[in-house]
């Protein structure tokens, strides 16, 4: 293992292994198979890249994501590792050259798309050369139940049959047990060692707030906490994606859109901008994100409720891969609950599927309404129990604990109002009746004569909405099957109406700014010289990235630039100590950096 450590330092420029990396690398380098479950940003790539350099022959990396392969290879070239891609982005001429070099032993790593790997031609080709290992990235793509299913992945079991002596490593950031089992079964990894890392992402701050005016709330969030940062805003529908992107642009932000209804060209253009330019806000449906390994995504915002905690965690996990502070922010309201419930009810799926979907939604809702640490809830959902302490200190609940109040009487009023009006109306009308508003509709239905008219004057409309939202989330009210949004009583509501059960609800909390701009956390420490230096480094990085045709982070991560500003190294030896500067980058960029840093 001293060899692995020296590769880590010299080639990658990192001082130490993270988490289980060292163990995984040793296991694989010694020829063992393994399955690696590690959260996004945990450092999975090094787990096969270093063994690829330690073992004889070429490491074949299977990945379904063309853009990701290309960026990884570009990053490897930057640090002087011999790597190539073989996928549909190459012309046949280019592909032949790659194949020739492969046979000549000129690569340490070769990234291939699964459909290419499975061709007879390719399988014959690699039978002629020494293979260091097979790395199966995004291994959850074998799962037929997951939304990233790739049929070719199932056939990857052929690797073990044809090359029984070549070690395999399968990697995924998907945490649930079922997927794990499916990967082992389908890829024939029964003998493989399993490395499970904690799925906690301590640098991500979770915030879920009441939706009042989502656009205004989003803008406030972006302006106060993320000015100039890159991030993703998720919306449920294509229409909302387009409208939100247009609106943010009109507000002076650099926003682009992405959804499956756009042309391939438009999509890849916007994706490229997001990857290459700085500070782009990507407004997207969940069609966007898989395989985006941009390390400096500073926030992920949800304007609509995700269907499950799995989805929420996967999407928010795209923030802060570089380990620096990042925000997962969401607004959520009654409409979301009704919409998601309705989508399940109206879907054509089989009953069993609907039940699973409903259960997942329940779990998501209880995460939204929780009065205890959100991180703890999420990790427990994935079967991970943390130490005795259950407060992470980095979610909105921990930072600003919500008050709960005894809402039994109010809930009874609301239930009886729904009942007296025939269980035919949505929350808006019921609130009008409770608050005694003489609207057209109230008059039309004679609802000013029901006994619940005006009995809820004492609560503000906003509070009533929150009460209704939580009642639906708690299953005390349910939407009808006809999709009108009418609220009906449930079995659970009976006990409350009879006074047999007390109901505690969350007090509404306002959007709160927990800190200065997250980026500002670091900036606050910078004086004007340092700030100037930071800017100069960023300008130099942008120019260099452009010349090389790669995203800025491929040249250096923000983490590296921060360290440069902080440490202000003046010699090659000092530069060598900085995270992310290996031999090759020192060679290429050392002089430029020293030139810039001379003024500090
Ligand atoms: P994953 O594929 O698990 O999402 P990556 O392999 O892309 O994560 O790694 C995430 C980031 O962490 C990358 O920018 C990588 O360079 C960095 N990284 C990985 N291992 C280390 C380490 N031991 N020390 C410092 N940085 C690391
Ligand atoms: Zn917490």
Descriptive report:
With about 600 residues, the chain is α/β, with parallel strands linked by helices. The protein folds into four domains: about 1-195, Rossmann fold; about 205-400, Rossmann fold (3-Layer(aba) Sandwich), CATH 3.40.50; about 405-505, Winged helix-like DNA-binding domain superfamily/Winged helix DNA-binding domain (Arc Repressor Mutant, subunit A, Orthogonal Bundle), CATH 1.10.10; about 520-595, Orthogonal Bundle (DNA polymerase, domain 1), CATH 1.10.150.80. The chain has 29 helices and 17 strands. The strands form four sheets. A seven-stranded parallel β-sheet has the order 3-4-2-5-6-1-7, with helices on both faces. Helix 1 packs across helix 3. The longest helix is centred in the C-terminal third of the chain and has 21 residues, at about 530-550. It is globular, with a radius of gyration of 27 Å. The protein starts with a helix and ends with a helix. Mean pLDDT is about 90; it is low at about 515-520. The structure holds adenosine-5'-diphosphate and zinc ion (ZN). Zinc ion binds next to helix 17 and helix 18.
Defining traits:
48% helix; Rossmann fold; 600 residues; alpha/beta; 7-stranded parallel sheet; Arc Repressor Mutant, subunit A; single chain; binds adenosine-5'-diphosphate; 6-stranded parallel sheet; binds zinc ion
Task: Annotate the secondary structure layout.
Blueprint: H1 2-12, H2 21-29, E1 34-37, H3 44-54, E2 58-62, H4 66-78, E3 83-86, H5 92-103, E4 109-112, H6 114-117, H7 120-127, E5 131-136, H8 151-154, H9 158-162, E6 168-172, H10 177-186, E7 193-196, E8 204-210, H11 214-225, E9 231-234, H12 238-250, E10 255-258, H13 264-276, E11 281-284, E12 299-302, H14 309-316, E13 326-332, H15 334-346, H16 351-369, H17 374-381, H18 396-399, E14 404-406, H19 408-420, H20 427-435, H21 440-444, H22 461-474, E15 477-479, E16 487-489, H23 491-497, E17 504-506, H24 518-523, H25 528-548, H26 552-555, H27 558-567, H28 572-576, H29 583-597
Parallel strand pairs: 1-6, 1-7, 2-4, 2-5, 3-4, 5-6, 8-13, 9-11, 9-12, 10-11, 12-13
Antiparallel strand pairs: 14-17, 15-16
Helix pairs in contact: 1-3, 2-3, 15-16, 15-22, 19-20, 20-22, 25-27
The structure holds adenosine-5'-diphosphate (ADP) and zinc ion.
Residues 14, 17-18, 21, 38, 40-46, 293, 295, 321-322, 557 line the site of adenosine-5'-diphosphate.
């Amino acid at each position: 293992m001293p060899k692995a450590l020296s590769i880590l330092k010299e080639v990658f420029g990192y001082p130490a292994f993270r988490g289980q990396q060292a163990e995984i690398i040793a296991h694989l380098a010694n020829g063992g198979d393994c399955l690696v479950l590690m959260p996004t940003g945990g450092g999975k790539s090094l787990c096969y890249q270093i063994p690829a350099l330690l073992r004889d022959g070429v490491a074949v990396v299977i990945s379904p994501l063309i853009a990701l392969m290309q960026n990884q290879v570009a990053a490897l070239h930057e640090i002087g590792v011999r790597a190539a891609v073989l996928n549909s982005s190459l012309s046949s001429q280019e592909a032949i050259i790659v194949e020739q070099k492969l046979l000549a032993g000129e690569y340490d790593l070769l990234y291939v798309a699964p459909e290419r790997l499975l061709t007879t031609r390719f399988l014959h080709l690699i039978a002629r050369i020494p293979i260091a290992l097979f790395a199966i990235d995004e291994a959850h793509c074998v799962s037929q139940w997951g939304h990233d299913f790739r049929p070719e992945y199932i056939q990857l079991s052929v690797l073990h049959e044809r090359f029984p002596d070549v070690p395999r490593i399968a990697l995924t950031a998907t945490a649930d047990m079922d997927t794990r089992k499916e990967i082992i079964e389908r890829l024939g990894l029964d003998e493989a060692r399993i490395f499970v890392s904690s799925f906690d992402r301590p640098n991500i701050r979770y915030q879920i707030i009441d939706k009042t005016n989502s656009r205004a709330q989003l803008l406030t969030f972006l302006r106060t906490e993320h000015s100039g940062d890159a991030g993703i805003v998720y919306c449920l529908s294509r229409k909302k994606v387009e409208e939100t992107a247009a609106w943010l642009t009109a507000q002076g932000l650099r926003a682009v859109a992405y959804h499956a209804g756009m042309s391939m060209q438009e999509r890849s253009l916007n994706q490229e901008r997001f990857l290459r330019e700085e500070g782009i806000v990507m407004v997207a449906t969940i069609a966007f994100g898989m395989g985006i390994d941009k390390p400096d995504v500073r926030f992920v915002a949800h304007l609509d409720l995700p269907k499950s905690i799995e989805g929420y965690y996967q999407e928010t996990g795209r923030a802060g891969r570089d380990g620096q502070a990042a925000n997962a922010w969401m607004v959520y309201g009654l409409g979301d609950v009704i919409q998601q419930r309705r989508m399940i009810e109206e879907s054509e799926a089989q009953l069993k599927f609907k039940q699973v979907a409903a259960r997942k939604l329940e779990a998501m809702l209880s995460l939204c309404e929780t009065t205890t640490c959100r991180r703890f809830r999420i990790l427990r959902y994935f079967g991970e129990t943390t130490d005795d302490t259950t407060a992470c200190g980095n979610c909105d609940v921990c930072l600003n604990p919500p008050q709960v109040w005894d809402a039994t009487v109010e809930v009874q009023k609301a239930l009886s109002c729904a009942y007296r009006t025939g269980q035919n109306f949505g929350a808006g009308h019921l609130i009008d009746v409770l608050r005694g508003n003489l609207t057209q509709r109230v008059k039309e239905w004679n609802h000013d004569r029901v006994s619940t008219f005006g009995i809820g004057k004492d609560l503000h409309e906003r509070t009533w909405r929150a009460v209704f939202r939580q009642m639906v989330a708690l299953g005390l009210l349910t939407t009808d099957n006809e999709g009108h949004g009418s609220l009906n009583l449930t079995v659970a509501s009976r006990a409350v109406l009879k006074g047999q059960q007390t109901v505690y609800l969350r007090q509404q909390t306002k959007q709160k700014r927990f800190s200065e701009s997250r980026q500002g956390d670091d900036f606050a420490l910078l004086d004007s010289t340092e700030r100037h230096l930071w800017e100069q480094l960023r300008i130099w990085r942008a120019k260099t990235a452009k010349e090389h045709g790669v995203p800025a982070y491929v040249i250096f991560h923000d983490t590296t630039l921060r360290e440069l500003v902080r440490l202000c190294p003046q010699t090659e030896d000092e530069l060598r100590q900085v995270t992310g500067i290996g031999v090759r980058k020192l060679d290429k960029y050392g002089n430029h950096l020293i030139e810039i840093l001379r003024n500090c």
